[in-house]
Write a structure and sequence with these properties.
Layout (H helix, E strand, L loop, with lengths): L2 H33 L3 H20 L1 H17 L3 H28 L1 H8 L5 H14 L1 H18 L4 H5 L2 H14 L6 H31 L11 H31 L6 H37 L2 H32 L1 H9 L6 H15 L2 H16 L4 H24 L7 H27 L5 H24 L8 H22 L3 H7 L14
């Protein structure tokens, strides 16, 4: 796949993620409006953390990393029958595994609450246990959704696999919009919302099955542990799960620490994390997801020296594309994050105090936004080469740094409402440690990850971002007194226009595509950024 076609593939992934995230923010707005950032929201957020962690461990990212390289290589060899047998055999193994896991999780719900939310009072802990029992089956459904995503991505079908997540949010929006004001208590509303969340997971899988059936043929799950390729995928899963498991440990640790801070801290951390993940998902995951099948095909089809050159070129192209979006996003979160939070979340139970706390936590996350997004791409290079141990080791080191830093900062300022921001800052610092380890290893094996054209593109991004920040910052005093729904779009829109126009003027093809203009000049590596 050429860089242009790979860029279009990344665009399809981003479009699918954008659809799901926009619908997700509507869901978040309703949740903030009706549940606020108090005890019931704390319980729901903590209960959702367990199935979400398993979703990340065993679902989309893990199966893509372990399954797509093997499946894509078989498609590259035109072994469609073998690829179909692999898909069905893996599906059978997953169905058995997630069924057992779901039953175990429901039975152990009180234990999970005691371990993860020991800082909760008795009322919040009891509600969390009830919600875990409803939400835990979602983890199994999301594993199957991850299998569907892997099949589609290997066949270079990207949009539906990511856009289908919107159905998960739609079910919750319907519940909150229709019955949010009818609940007798916030605890009852959280209980209803848990059931709607589970229904959304069913819908997310259902909308993908027709496309998967068309691509992979009739779905006839078999318990295929004897299949050589299945054993290869399962063998790949172990270190990938280990690496992601370490990352999820960091997430659990963050929630554990937040539970000992002021009530509502778990919710504040959750809201800020959702906002931070938007550019990471739209650009970091989009580029890495579309690149992974191509990395695997290159490895299968090209000679060793050519593979190194191809990987280095793809990494640079993807990295510059990621930086084009996440560098200005980080600056916006720090300087204008109050407007972002106010426009997207402030309503009903979510007031000015919650806006200030979420903004402070989001700004701390923004310190690591570049590394959060880039690490996905760098890890995809290792996964395509079926080297899973190095990312595991690096994750263990970075998560250790993250947890130690988060605990030190949060507990040192635990009496302050913004102590929760220390948790986010710890995650950001740990992410930079992971980036340093991944990039150092790849530079040693592939050579410089940014050639002169890539460095020039980075300089264009930084200078365009700085100019946009200055202009938008100068406009801010003039907008005082305006309603947040007027001030936010005005300031953020000005920032975006200045950034895009300046980037286009300095030769960015990515900006030219947004502005629907011809690039002023082509970058020396053949990719206009």
């Amino acid at each position: 796949m050429t860089p242009a076609r790979e860029g279009r593939a990344a665009g399809l992934v981003a479009a699918g993620i954008l659809v799901s995230r926009l619908v997700g923010f509507v869901r978040t707005w309703f949740a903030a409006r009706y549940l606020g950032a108090g005890a019931a929201q704390d319980a729901y957020t903590m209960a959702l953390r367990v199935p979400n962690a398993l979703r990340n461990l065993l679902g989309e990212g893990t199966l893509s990393a372990a399954f797509v390289p093997v499946y894509s290589a078989m498609l590259a060899r035109e072994d469609e029958r073998g690829a179909r047998a692999l898909a069905n055999a893996l599906l059978g193994v997953l169905l058995v595994g997630v069924s057992l896991l779901t039953l175990l999780g429901i039975a152990l719900a009180p234990v999970l609450t005691a371990v993860l939310a020991s800082g909760f009072d008795a009322e919040r802990a009891a509600l969390t246990t009830r919600l875990i029992r409803v939400l835990f089956p979602m983890a199994g459904l999301m594993v199957i959704s991850g299998w569907c995503l892997g099949v589609q991505n290997s066949h270079r079908r990207f949009f539906l696999s990511y856009a289908s997540a919107a159905m998960w949010s739609v079910a919750q929006i319907v519940l909150l919009a229709g019955w949010g004001s009818r609940a007798e208590s916030l605890a009852q509303l959280a209980w209803w919302l848990a059931w709607a969340t589970l229904a959304g997971a069913v819908l997310q899988v259902s909308v993908q099955l027709p496309e998967v059936w068309r691509l992979a043929g009739p779905l006839r799950p078999t318990f295929g542990l004897g299949n050589t390729e299945v054993r290869a995928v399962l063998g790949n899963l172990v270190p990938v799960i280990g690496a992601l498991g370490v990352v999820q440990l960091s997430g659990f640790a963050d929630g554990f620490i937040a539970a000992y801070l002021e009530p509502g801290s778990v919710s504040v951390l959750g809201f800020a994390n959702q906002l931070m993940l938007l550019p990471v998902a739209l650009f970091g995951i989009a580029v890495s997801a579309s690149s992974l099948p191509e990395f695997a095909r290159d490895r299968s089809a090209l000679e060793q020296e050519t593979v190194r050159e191809a990987l280095r070129a793809r990494v640079q192209d993807g990295w510059v594309r990621i930086l084009f979006y996440v560098v200005p996003s980080a600056v916006v979160f720090v300087l204008f994050g109050d407007l972002v939070v106010g426009v997207l979340l402030r309503s009903g139970q979510f007031g000015l105090r919650e806006q200030v706390l979420v903004h402070g936590t989001l700004a701390a996350y923004a310190v690591g936004l570049v590394s959060f997004a880039t690490n996905r791409l760098l890890a995809a290079v290792f996964h395509a080469r079926q080297d899973y141990r190095a990312p595991l080791r690096f994750s263990m080191v970075s998560v250790g740094v993250s947890i130690a830093t988060a605990a030190s900062l949060a507990f040192a300022f635990r009496t302050h409402a913004l102590a929760v921001a220390g948790i986010a800052l710890g995650a950001a610092i740990g992410s930079w440690v992971n980036f340093t380890l991944l990039s150092t290893r790849l530079r040693r094996e592939l050579g410089p990850l940014l050639a002169s054209a890539g460095r020039a593109a980075l300089w264009r991004i930084v200078t365009a971002t700085a100019l946009a920040a200055v202009v938008a910052g100068a406009l801010r005093p003039l907008t005082d007194g305006l309603h947040r729904w007027v001030e936010g779009p005005l300031v953020l829109g000005t920032f975006s226009v200045i950034y895009l126009v300046t980037s286009w003027w300095r030769g960015s093809g990515e900006a030219a595509r947004w502005l629907r203009l011809a690039p002023r000049r082509q970058a020396r590596d053949g990719t206009a950024r």
